[in-house]
Design goal:
The complex is a heterodimer of chains A (224) and B (371).
Chain A lengths: L10 E5 L3 H13 L3 E6 L2 H11 L3 E5 L7 H11 L4 E6 L5 H9 L3 E4 L4 H12 L7 H16 L12 H11 L4 H8 L3 H29 L8
Parallel strand pairs in A: 1-2, 1-3, 3-4, 4-5
Helix pairs in contact in A: 2-3, 3-4, 6-7, 7-9, 8-9
Chain B lengths: L1 H27 L7 H23 L6 H22 L13 H30 L5 H67 L5 H25 L7 E3 H6 L8 E5 L6 E3 H21 L5 E8 L3 E8 L8 H7 L4 H12 L3 E7 L2 E9 L5
Parallel strand pairs in B: 2-4
Antiparallel strand pairs in B: 1-3, 4-5, 5-7, 6-7
The chains are: A alpha/beta (224), B alpha+beta (371).
Chain lengths: 224, 371
């Protein structure tokens, strides 16, 4: 589903509270042959329109009127696990970007990226690839190191393999997947898989933490 | 005002305890009364006034000078009446320690001055009503005087601390609100600058305007980072967070640096952090000189607990084999030598990977094991 039919244009939804931005992104996407099925100016609109519009990719600004980008990401992925979320943020790599990635976003781009970069990112995310910036890779590395200090969860989700760490470090140092593949003598696909795995572990760990928290707080009905 | 309210509530409780004590003592020593009926009436006055006073002081609006004066007058009058009801050679005054209630009220309301004046009035009444002084009387009188002054002073101090705390709380709230508003405004400005930059890159766009917007965007981003860094200044151990220090390098116009940090503080002694930053700057300067003004460079900061690793990478032509050795043979220290030397001074190691793909420094700085 996520790969889609090559003939079928990718369905995209744009969520941004800045009308000028929303229009610019929408125009660029439409001009490049994407099918912009919905736009929204805030989290409420986004979640109201998402089920009907069924976009394959949601291009999402993090700083939107409530519910915020992180909450929208979590809800979108819950409603349709095959939908991809590409975060577009003006304020740079911060904790909320990491939170959005933990909630299920698979791509992240700063708004100062060129429109060619944006189109490429939407294309890659729609194919199921991950789009990382070096800054985000640094945050994710830091997050896994913090998990090592925390009590172990024994589910393997809180640990990266040596190879995954190596790949992520190279991403954080600004190497493209192609450069990493050359440096480590791997296929481009393998590098991509390693990066995807780190994200998957992060998201899994996040879910495990949330569940554990829910059980501890007695919010989990099945536990009673 | 909150300080006074709290203290008057405490005094109200104290008054009841003092009353119980005074009534009990008078009942126990009822044989000492020369005029038992008058004595009973005076004790009842004391009981009545205790409850009247507690009711009156409970409301801020009733705490006026007439109430305080009446309070003190009752206490003084009860002391003064003692020789008449108990005979000239009495031992304990009729109200006894009960007069503390009035004393404390004055000390709370008029602070140091009030406490002193009330204490003097009570002491004078006590001394004038006695035929002779003994050591116990003197001790009581002295304590009364001291208590008035000390409590008055303490209330003054508490009041000033409460005012200072209120001011600090208000300032913190204002600063927090300002930061919140600034974040919203900054985000909006960043969005617009990014948009202008983007339009500039499009065909037919104003490239110059786009470039200027890009520069301002970077400057604002750096400013925000600096502000965030200022909010976590050097802690008591003299440590700083290396993250924002290195992130500030992203502001450099040349080379174009992308900085990745772990997102949580990477504490390092302030001096070491400064040295690390200087070394990274030296590496970046090298990029500028050997690769180009507009060359991209990447900095990655990692905190591995017992050590901090900083990587600096570029995609230049690399350092040719033998160039470092040649520089050393010529007796020149060379940039690479200087980088290694500075890292070694911090007890760390510098690893250099270079080739056609570019140059990468991996600088490892050990943390002080005593940390």
């Amino acid at each position: 589903m996520s790969d889609g039919d090559a003939q079928q244009p990718v369905r995209v939804m744009v969520v941004d509270d800045h009308p000028m931005w929303r229009d610019a992104v929408e125009r660029d996407l439409a001009a490049a042959g994407f099918d912009v099925v919905a736009v929204a100016a805030n989290g409420t609109e986004a979640l109201a329109r998402f089920p009907a519009a069924r976009p394959g990719v949601v291009v999402l600004d993090l700083q939107i009127p409530a519910p915020n980008g992180v909450e929208v990401t979590a809800e979108v992925v819950r409603l349709d696990p095959s939908a991809r979320v590409l975060i577009l943020s003006a304020s740079g790599e911060q904790d909320d970007v990491l939170d959005a990635v933990k909630a299920g976003a698979t791509g992240y781009l700063v708004k100062s990226a060129s429109s060619a970069e944006l189109l490429d990112a939407v294309r890659r995310v729609s194919r199921g690839d991950t789009v990382f910036t070096p800054g985000l890779a640094g945050l994710v590395l830091g997050e896994f190191r913090r998990m090592l200090d925390a009590p172990p969860s024994d589910d393997g989700s809180s640990r990266l393999t040596e190879r995954e760490t190596e790949v992520l470090r190279l991403v954080a140092k600004g190497l493209s997947y192609k450069q990493i593949a050359e440096r480590l003598v791997l296929s481009h696909r393998t590098v991509q898989n390693h990066v995807q795995n780190t994200l998957r572990k992060l998201q899994l760990h996040n879910r495990v933490q949330l569940t554990r928290y829910a059980i501890e707080q007695g919010l989990d009905d099945e536990d009673e | 005002m909150a300080v006074q309210d709290g203290m008057f509530r405490a005094v109200a409780v104290l008054r009841v305890l003092l009353l119980a004590n005074a009534v009990a003592l008078n009942v126990y020593r009822r044989d000492n009364f020369v005029h038992p009926t008058a004595g009973l009436v005076l004790v009842l006055v004391m009981v009545a006034w205790t409850f009247v006073a507690n009711w009156a002081y409970a409301d801020r609006r009733r705490r006026r000078p007439p109430l305080l004066v009446a309070d003190l007058l009752v206490a003084v009058a009860l002391i003064a009446a003692t020789p008449w009801v108990k005979g000239a050679g009495f031992n304990a005054t009729l109200p006894g320690y009960w007069v503390m209630g009035a004393l404390l009220a004055w000390a709370i309301h008029w602070r140091l001055v009030g406490g002193t004046v009330a204490a003097c009035a009570l002491v004078a009444a006590d001394l004038l009503s006695r035929q002779e002084m003994n050591q116990t009387n003197y001790g009581n009188v002295f304590l009364l005087l001291l208590g008035g002054v000390v409590v008055g002073y303490l209330v003054d101090l508490l009041q000033r601390m409460a005012v200072a705390r209120d001011v600090a709380e208000r300032e913190a709230a204002v600063a927090g609100e300002r930061a919140r508003l600034a974040r919203a405004v900054h985000d909006g400005v960043l969005q617009v600058l990014a948009l202008v930059q983007r339009r500039g890159g499009e065909p037919g766009g104003d490239a110059e305007l786009g470039r200027l917007a890009g520069e301002q965007e970077q400057a604002l981003r750096a400013l925000i980072r600096q502000q965030d860094a200022l909010q976590v200044p050097t802690d008591e151990d003299g440590e700083v967070d290396l993250g924002p220090v290195l992130e500030a390098l992203g502001l450099l116009r040349s080379p174009r640096v992308s900085v990745a940090t772990p997102g949580t503080p990477v504490p390092l002694p302030a001096q070491s952090a400064g040295e690390v930053e200087a070394v990274v700057r030296a590496c970046l300067h090298n990029v500028e000189v050997h690769v180009g003004d507009d060359a991209p460079a990447w900095v990655l900061l990692e905190d591995l607990g017992d050590r901090v690793v900083v990587s600096v990478r570029d995609e230049g032509p690399g350092i040719a084999d033998g160039r470092l050795a040649a520089a050393e043979a010529e007796g020149r220290l060379g940039v690479s030598g200087s980088i290694r030397g500075r890292v070694a001074d911090l007890g760390g190691t510098a690893e250099l990977i270079t080739g056609a793909f570019g140059t990468e420094w991996e600088l490892t700085f050990p943390r002080d094991p005593e940390r």
